[in-house]
Amino acid sequence: MFHFFMIYFVIITELLTRAMWFPLSSKYRWDYISSEL
Q1: 2-21 and 26-36 helices, crossing angle to 10°
Q2: What is the pTM of this model?
Q3: How far apart are CA 6 and CA 33, in angstroms?
């Protein structure tokens, strides 16, 4: 259960980081996401 919580926390942190990066550099953000998929 603790391991699941850590994964959940990392996902939220990642989403918040991308949300903050969006207004700064949307092009870089989308290129980064596309490279991950």
Answers
A1: 140
A2: 0.43
A3: 22
